[in-house]
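TICKET: design request
STATUS: open
ATTACHED STRUCTURE:
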């Protein structure tokens, strides 16, 4: 498995993640289903973890996150865009991280990127995978609440080559040996 790229969030980026988590959760008029969250993670914390990953990826590839707020949720809209390509960022606090989707139809973007929240402000970007690749190599695993489509981080394309693959337009270098601050 390729080494993840570590991204350090600045205090202002943490404030942005918290503010957007408040706004996204507070704006929902559609009830947030309890099944969408684990027993150990509140709906707010799920938003916050996800936003930390989104901000880390946007910082890594030098492209802004979407700060839109939709009262009915994101409606499976992508987290980020690069040209015509859509990207979803999946974040987890669990180690080792795995890419986990409730169902295959949840993968609606061109690319998905997996992040691990190592600690607050420290995000490890593990890698990326296209929808076609995920469909061909995922496994079904039951965590006690039904089968989920999963892929271990070892099955991802390295995060270090995000700027070298076609979905991304960033031409700046990514150094796997250094932290991104």
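STATUS: resolved
RESOLUTION: sequence designed for all positions
ATTACHED SEQUENCE:
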């Amino acid at each position: 498995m390729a080494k993840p790229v570590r991204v350090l969030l600045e205090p202002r980026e943490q404030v942005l993640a918290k503010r957007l988590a408040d706004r996204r959760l507070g704006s929902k008029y559609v009830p947030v289903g309890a099944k969408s969250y684990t027993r150990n993670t509140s709906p707010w914390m799920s938003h916050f973890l996800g936003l930390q990953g989104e901000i880390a990826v946007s910082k890594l590839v030098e492209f802004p996150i979407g700060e839109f707020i939709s009262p009915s949720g994101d409606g499976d809209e992508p987290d980020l865009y690069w040209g015509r390509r859509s990207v979803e960022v999946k974040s987890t606090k669990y180690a080792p991280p795995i890419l986990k989707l409730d169902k295959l139809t949840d993968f609606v973007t061109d690319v998905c990127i997996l992040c691990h929240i190592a600690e607050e402000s420290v995000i490890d970007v593990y890698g990326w995978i296209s929808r076609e690749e995920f469909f061909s190599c995922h496994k079904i695993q039951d965590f006690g609440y039904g089968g989920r489509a999963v892929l271990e981080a070892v099955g991802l394309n390295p995060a270090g080559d995000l700027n070298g693959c076609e979905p991304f337009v960033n031409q700046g270098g990514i150094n796997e040996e250094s932290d991104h601050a």
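CLOSING REMARK: Residues 164-181 have pLDDT under 50 and may be disordered. The first helix runs from residue 11 to 26.
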